[in-house]
Structures
1.
Amino acid sequence: MKQIAVVSGKGGTGKTTITSLLAQTLDNKIMVDCDVDAANLHLLLKPNIIQSTDFYSGKKAAVNPFKCTECGRCEYVCRFDAVNRQQEGGYKIDDLSCNGCGACTITCRYEAITLENNLAGKFFISDTEQGDLVHAALGIAEDNSGKLVARIREEAFVLADEKGIDLILIDGPPGIGCPVISSITGVDLLLIVTEPSLTGLHDLKRLLKLAQGFKLPSVVIINKCDLNSDLCSQVEAFCKDQGIPIIASIPFEKELVSIAHEKDVVFQTKAFNIIKDSQKELISRLNL
């Protein structure tokens, strides 16, 4: 089983749009949207949700009002201002502020506070015209996105194994942080989407350094390549110097995003035809 991760050093490069175009051209694959903090691949693929599962991660404190004597020790020791006295009496935990450290449970003499499993989000298995999609939604202010990414990748592996599918296509998050590392660990090929801008080039360098640290083979697509010819030349020169192949350069198409969900129209775009040609090289590099 082979894995391609589509990633970008920064947001706004068109990574998810490129992934959706690849989804149109690649056969026998399962797609995974690992950008769990701001998932949007499903907006383009219009999935039909088949299965929804709660994702629990970490702990949150909870007050038992029948045991609480309102002594205030929990409020005093909390360094996150998560324990609040209510006007009507008693104490309540602010879930968004609670860090699950457990200090309040230790200081409470009456065992009125316990740590409970935290519902951090949900993940889904969906059906689309392009194949099965595994995606997720992390809860507001939750910080365990790396764990959720690992979980949905596991789900994709199981699903691919059950259906005898040879390829997993990952839409990764932007940047180089924890969810990115969780998305690219162990993949067979990184497809890095960049753009001809100063920030695009800067973050491409950071991402390639990360990929080299993990010894991951990488290729590059320059999206919106005609917006700045000088910076596009700088991106090309950098990739040549690093020995990183550029498999496609896609011109800017203003209408592409607005029509990305209309399959028949997408087939007529320059971007689709360029991606269709470049996917042959992706397949050859994966030995599929």
2.
Amino acid sequence: MNTRDIDMLRGSLWDKIILFALPLALTGVMQQLLNAADVVTLGKFVGKHAMAAVGNNISMVGLIVSLLMGLSLGANVVIAQNIGANRIDRAHAAVGTSFVLATAAGIFFCAVGEFLVAPIFYFLEVPPSVVDMAKTYLRIFLLGLPAMSLYNFQAAIFRSKGDTRTPLIALAIASGVNIVLNLLFVLQCGWGIAGVAAATVIANVVSALIMFRALLKADGVIKLDFNALHVDKAELFEIVRIGLPAGVQGMVFSLSNLLIQAAINSLGADAMAASAAAFTIEINVFCVVNGFGQAATTFVGQNYGAGNLPRCKRATWVSMGLSAIFMQTLCCVILFFAENILSLFNSDPEVIRLGVIRLWYIVAPELINVFMEGLSGALRGYGISLTPAVITLVCVCGVRVAWVFTAFAHIPTYATLMAVYPISWFMTALVLVAAYFYHMKHLKPARS
């Protein structure tokens, strides 16, 4: 095995899950640093209206990125199951198929996104003071989608065999490039919001190229072979079968957040700026939870392929326990220093006050997400991806739509709107727990 690979099939679990999940969580944090660098640069050097413009893009960007990341998760599961079952030829075929799918998906969603820019901002009822800046940012950002798609799929390939450090290194370099270019394009060139968007695109290209070079030089099952760059129908079917529902599950959150963003917009520029700043903080907590959730997916995937069901179940609960410990530690730090951290983005007292409200409503009850991400991740490792997607669609979307048009319509305050997050999480977690135990009783053997 490569020195960065983790043997998921043998030995203790807790230390290996930490070694897998923490670099993955830090990778997520690095991805958010790309967004945070944009928000901080604009908030400090351009103004809160530019900050609000980026905030209006968060849900739209999340919609597309969630689908791409979900599809890449399908590649992770399929390759991991093949590795666990020692189906080396099928794993090779899945790697080549994943690369082709990543390229095609990135180009497709770039084109669709550019076409939908105007209708989306019309739906969001973005105020005239920020709409032009928001459109400019999104149109430039979308040009980097092919590179972003390639990075996510290539990272999923490395993670399938237990290497989470290579994607972290690539993204760390890209984040540094993004920060430097942000300052150069905004302070020296005076390009404003277009400059930070261009910097993000270049950073995405850098991360994709680093991962591409790493795949070409990789040893063993994941080495990229140009002769294998074709679509294997069987592996493509499995990747899409698992990945598409996972992507839809992520999209549901983004779709419901589009509705919430429209409600936030109705409260003014301060609320929009506060949400943009708070989101860049709170999402880092989710990165920790998501890192351990993906650990559950990959550990379960390999051991399910190997036919070791008891180890699959242990990996699920160990991942969730470790997730709770690391996540709660980070939550306490964020809530204690909430005002100080928010002031790094913008010094406006009202923006900070509203940002603190959002952090308490979203970061404090984050423990609920441990159950949501842990159990969803484990089910995907077994190849069961549709169930968590449907549950999320019904519970998250249903609760949030109902809340916006009832509770928020009756009491249209920022705090009322933020309360929808923990309520929708709690309802979803309850149903997911029941679904998980149901599937454990009716689990089928892995494909041969």
